[in-house]
Amino acid sequence: MLNKQDDTKPVIALAAINTDEEIRLKSSSGGIFTLLAEKIIANEGVIFGAAFNKNWEVHHEEGATIEDLCKFRGSKYVQSKIENSYKRTEYFLKEGKEVLFSGTPCQIAGLKCFLQKDYLNLTTVDFICHGVPSPGIWEWYLKNHIFTKTNTSSKLKDINFRDKTFGWQNYRLAFQFKSHTPILSANNTNGYMLAFLNDICLRPSCYKCPTKKGSSHSDITIADFWGINEFNIEMDDNKGTSLVLINTKKGVELIKEIKMQSKKVSIDKALALNQSWKKSAKPHELRNLFYKQYKKHESDFTSFTQDLIHTKSITKRVIRKIFRTLGYNQLPI
């Protein structure tokens, strides 16, 4: 279990995009991770990040070539399995290799606990994390709603949680097949994404995250720049814009070395518009019911999840009415 570390505030906040439009299209937001990784690889370094394995589970892998970067690109809304990546990171660091390790804030904090010392040749990159769903839910969803229904387990060639066919702000969960029509589903029509975005299927630790407010002590934090439209900087083209929070001197030096389109923004305003930087998700009040019953709804998982969310809204309306009757103005949940 991770102990809560001291909070740290970014020293610089940027709105940024990769000027390579193809890379930006394939990335979840502005494509900045690729630029950071390319710089480390140019110095003959090693990258660690989340990737799919042959069974479409998410785990951490290493890479040392430009071609390897495609497997790390894009968000994976599943908790990745660290496996031996901490040990491999330590090995490369002791060999004198530059290493860029990317992951959730808790994974960065875990790496630092494992290493027990600072390395000048280590750069850590995390992201503003909403929370991670259970790998078990993901594996069950794939088996029962993708592989079984389409008979395509051996024909699946790519999964993109943030497909931008309809724009960055209207992203889709997309499944690409070798010889089958692609499956694209919007967040409000996909059971898995509904469960994730409504805090129904997150890991228990995500509801009391010990690595909020910069306490992972990463060098750089990247995220979707939600709220970019609140800044008059003409970088909101619905193709994806990254919020880049630079937390350390090492992060400042690395950012200086990469070429990107960027503009400084107010740190306080950017963080205020991206509340997950400082606040943990709140568990859905019907989360326990979801875990007890989701396997019973293989044929209508999306409807089941939608019903849970609808039930929550009804419950809140009833409680709100009761409290207003009692003379209270705000719902205490």
Description:
With 333 residues, the protein is an alpha/beta fold. It contains 11 helices and 11 strands. Helix 7 packs parallel to helix 11 (301-325).
**Can you list the strand order of the major beta sheet?**
3-2-4-5-9-10-1-11
Q: What is the number of helical segments per DSSP (H or I, 4+ residues)?
A: 11
Q: What is the molecular shape?
A: globular
Rounded mean pLDDT score: 90
Assign the CATH class of the largest domain. Answer: Alpha Beta
CATH topology grouping of the largest domain: Aspartate Aminotransferase, domain 2
Percentage of residues in helical conformation: 25-40%
* Domain module count: 2
Rg calculated over all Cα atoms: 20 Å
| SSE order | EHHEEHHEHEHEEEHEEHEHHH
What is the percentage of strand-forming residues?
Answer: 15-25%
Q: How widely separated are the two ends?
A: 28 Å
- Count of DSSP strands: 11
Main beta sheet, described? Answer: 8 strands, mixed
Low-confidence spans: 319-324, 327-333
**CATH architectural group of the largest domain:** 3-Layer(aba) Sandwich
What structural class should be given to the helix and strand makeup? Answer: alpha/beta
